[in-house]
Backbone:
């Protein structure tokens, strides 16, 4: 267990406990101090690593372009200087909501006035024959990324990626950058099918094929072969694909066990209102684990991306302090794959849009894509076109019907489409 304790006692008063030394948790602690909270702040994390950001794990750190320290949210010593008790390598095992206490697996029990859950999510596991073999990897932690980097960097290996979601595609791109042979297996008809739909998902298929990736679509993983170490992946279509390393990226599940055991309302995440407060007025949740009501979208959403943790943690902190908070930020995501850089705003959920409009030619590698629902922009994506995110988000927030022809015309400024 690693513990970073403030060199000076914080003023007496309330104690705020944050379970989850994640980006959301660290940014919440930072916001509490910036907002003038002078009480005790305890930040609890299961890993021995101080809080870090996860995008580099499948991007720059995995590619060897960024050193480990650059991923940390704050530099060493920041927590001590700001009077934040950082307790690492320890797990919260129970919440006593009546007694306002949190039990830890080292035997300690912490009292709290307000509690924030930023427990994140864990990779979904494949449970098929052979899934216990060595050489099958999941990517969630800094250690996972460091291990994969060691395996990919020599090059010349046969890498099989299960799942063509964001993690699967980013790790496939990294593996190809190291000159490995890469096969991606995906049960949907296109990559990112559930995230972007078939129209744009097909463009990502073209991108990866152009970089030498063998895509096996419309088939899943049925099992693994190997004598202790994986040597082949068996698809649902009966094909056997040789593999030296397997990377599984089939999504995540929110870490709700602690909340559920405490009797908080849970359904694909810890249920929170627009102020990020749970069914208990003294307990809040933010980041990947929170299923929050979004007042602009008029529905409950759970967003697993970096920007939600970055902004949701501070929003929850302000709510804990009794400030009026309505967390209305639009979902935002970015990716880098090969020469493609992309930003996505909104939720282009298949079945919830009825048209996709392109501005620019996708074949050129520089374009915008808009998902329309009832003539209104539900989501927008910019590929290798920069400084347009605020305009795209303004279109989504306006909720107005747009002229599809003008939306597709690069000569019409996006700002002119908002009345």
Residues:
């Amino acid at each position: 267990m690693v513990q970073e304790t403030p060199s000076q006692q914080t003023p007496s008063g309330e104690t705020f406990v944050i379970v989850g030394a994640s980006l959301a948790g660290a940014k919440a602690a930072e916001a509490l101090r910036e907002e003038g909270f002078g009480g005790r702040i305890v930040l609890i994390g299961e890993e021995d690593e101080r809080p870090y950001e996860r995008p580099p794990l499948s991007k720059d750190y995995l590619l060897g372009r960024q050193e480990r320290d650059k991923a940390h949210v704050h530099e060493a010593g920041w927590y001590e200087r700001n009077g934040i008790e950082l307790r690492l390598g320890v797990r919260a095992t129970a919440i006593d909501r009546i007694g306002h206490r949190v039990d830890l697996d080292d035997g300690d029990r912490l009292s709290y006035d307000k509690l924030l859950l930023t427990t994140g999510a864990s990779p979904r596991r494949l449970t098929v024959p052979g899934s216990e073999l060595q050489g099958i990897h999941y990517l969630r932690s800094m250690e996972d990324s460091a291990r994969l980097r060691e395996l990919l960097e020599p090059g010349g290996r046969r890498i099989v990626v299960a799942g063509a979601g964001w993690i699967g595609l980013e790790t496939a791109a990294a593996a190809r950058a190291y000159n490995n042979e890469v096969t991606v297996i995906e049960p949907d008809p296109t990559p990112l099918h559930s995230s972007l739909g078939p129209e744009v998902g097909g463009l990502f298929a073209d991108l990866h094929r152009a970089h030498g990736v063998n895509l096996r679509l419309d088939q899943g993983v049925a099992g693994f072969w190997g004598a202790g170490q994986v040597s082949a992946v068996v698809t649902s279509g009966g094909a056997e694909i040789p593999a030296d390393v397997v990377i599984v990226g089939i999504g995540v599940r929110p870490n709700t066990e602690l909340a559920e055991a405490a009797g908080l309302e849970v359904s694909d995440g810890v249920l929170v209102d627009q102020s990020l407060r749970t069914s208990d007025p003294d307990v809040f949740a933010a980041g990947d684990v929170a299923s929050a009501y979004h007042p602009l979208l008029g529905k409950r959403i759970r967003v697993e991306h970096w920007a939600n943790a970055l902004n949701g943690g501070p929003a929850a902190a302000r709510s804990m302090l009794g400030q009026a908070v309505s967390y209305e930020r639009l979902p935002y995501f970015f990716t880098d794959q090969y020469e493609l850089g992309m930003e996505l705003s909104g939720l282009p959920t298949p079945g919830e849009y009825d048209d996709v409009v392109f501005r620019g030619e996708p074949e050129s590698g520089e374009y915008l894509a808009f998902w329309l629902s009832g003539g209104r922009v539900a989501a927008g994506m910019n590929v290798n076109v920069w400084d347009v995110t605020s305009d795209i988000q303004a279109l989504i927030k306006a909720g107005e019907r747009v002229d599809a022809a003008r939306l597709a015309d690069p000569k019409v400024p996006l700002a002119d489409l908002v009345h």
Summary: The longest strand covers residues 376-383. Confidence is low (pLDDT under 50) at residues 1-12.
